[in-house]
Each structure stands twice: as structure tokens, then as C-alpha cells.
Amino acid sequence: MATESFAPSPPGLLHRQDFSHLIRILQKLGYRILGPVLSNGAIQWGEITRGEDLPIGWKDQQRPGSYRLEPDSNPRYFNIVHGPQSLKPLVFTPRETLLVLDRNGKTFSVKETVPEIPRTAVLGVRACDLAGLGIQDQILLNGSYPDPYYQRRRNNLLLIAVNCTRALETCFCASMGTGPKAQEGYDLSLTEADEDFLIQAGSPTGLEVLEHLACDVASEARIQQDDERIAACAASQTRTLPHASLPHGLYEAHDHARWEEVAARCLAC
Predict the structure, then answer these.
(1) By three-state DSSP, how is residue 186 classified?
(2) CA 182, 232, 190, 13: dihedral to nearest 10 degrees?
(3) What pLDDT was estimated at residue 2?
């Protein structure tokens, strides 16, 4: 799990033919690996055992009210930007047994049930995923009363981010300062090019994995090349969210008629 006090490692160079070695190292370290997989016409988190399980040869197109996958000649592992799922189900399940009551005559005993969670590496996390997870961490992990169920799952996650070099029509992370490059919250980060990846550790756990890989050191020219591609991705985003003025605007609109209009459609959810 990433820590705020850890300074990211210098970027290394992982050649494309060595990508499968990363997966094997994670397996040897005892991780179950989840990544974006093609399932029922959409991209979902699924278990992977090799690089070929990733959606190579596909790209996603997302527009207001529209989501589709299209064949693509680009051979990259992560040309898909984002599927419809977030990381939330991996750490905060919709149904969970919190305790078990055993009745014994007129008395009963209470047994708490903290789940056994396998070590899980999530490959292909995006910067926007990390930003959302960071908000959850503030409440459920770093607050006055940490949730032990969330904490157990969160601490057993190893997050491998992929920096975006392609944006969708619906992307707006640049305006929020939460992407397209992962800045914090990751254990490892990857920036994919046609022939290789820049790889960087963002936590002691990520550094352990990186040391097993024994990557070449990335040149300054190579690092700058990827920075330019990420900057171009940010510049290509046409959607923005004026988040700085949102809190004040919401307070000012407390009695706005729009809320009554929305409430009229509510079905007592």
C-alpha cells in the first residue's frame, strides 16, 4: 500500500517483451492479479494470469450516453482508458457479515467476522481511480474510527497505475488536478509506449517488486518524451469542472428550485 512519506523512485525502463516477467513476479510474491479484461462487451476488473489476458487490440469510445468498444490495430496492453467499474467494490463490498450471534440457552455470544482477504495486485489503475480511492481512505481508513473491514481489504491491495496518454470525450481529470498522470496513492506506475514502459515505484512494496525486475535506468530524453505525451493527453480534454467555486456555489443554491425538481422524481430510494 502506498504511503505519503515515500519519495517515488527514479523511472526505470521495462521492455515490452519483459512485461510478462512483471506478472510472474507478482504471482511469486503471492498476489492474485486483477486487471481490465473484456467481458460481455465491456471492460471489467477480472483475474489475469498473463499479459495476453488484457484487452490488446481494443479501444474504448465514451460519449454522453454512449459506451462502446472498437477493434484497434494498436498492440498496446492498455489502450483502453477506463471501463464502467471503479475500485470501490474491491474495498467496500455491498453485502458483508459483520458479526455472528451464537445462542446458548438464555445467553448468546458475539463473534466478530473480519474477512480473510488475499493479497491482490490491481494492474491498470488510472489516476482518477486513485483520486476517488483517496477520498474513501480519508473517511474509512484515516479518520477517527477506521473501518476494520475496509482497512483489511485496503492494506492487502497493491495498486499498479497506468498513466493516460489518450483521453476520452468524457474525461475531465486535468481540470481537477487528478490526472492524467498518477501523482500519489500508487505502488507502481507505468507509462506505456509502443516498445516499452516507464516504470516507477511509489511505495516500499512497489520498490520491492521493482527491484525484482532489475529494469534499465530510463534516460532523461525518454522521461521527457513521456511527460510530453501525458501533457498532450491533458491538453486534449475538452471537458472541465470548475471545482474551486463549487462549494460556495452549492451553499448559495441551497434553496434553489432545482432541488425540488429532482426530489419530485425520487422513488423513496
Answers:
(1) coil
(2) -130
(3) 66
